[in-house]
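Entry 14. Structure prediction run on the chain below.
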Amino acid sequence: MNTSNTAYPAMPVHQFATKKAKGKGKGQPQARVNMNTALVEEVDEEMKSVMEALKDNFNKTLNVRTAPGSLDHIPVVIADGKLALNYTGQISMKSPQLIFVNMTRFPECTSATIKAIRQSGMNLNPEVEGTLIQGPYS
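Output returned:
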């Protein structure tokens, strides 16, 4: 066992082999590429944030709303935390332009659900009739 004091780099570095050019002899050493792990992680985090921003932008600008399931992902903020809209109420559509959310399961969440729908970026402005929220798609 070698007990010499060897200095190691502070950041882990992965060395990946590169493709050898054809015609080189087998006795020549392979070229190596140094890849900094911290840089890879930084780029990965930046890509994730760009993807989230793109996803939010698509949700706000695209008008592809043909099924009640398009509202399932809307987060409703209540006293206990955040719930998806499909957990607070039953979503249904009477026509392609009219949506209903039945709030009989959690009538106390009606105002929070209305606020979440209005702030969803889907250009919806619902109205309330008792425990029934209804609104036209635009």
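The chain has three helices and eight strands.
Filed with the rest of this week's runs.
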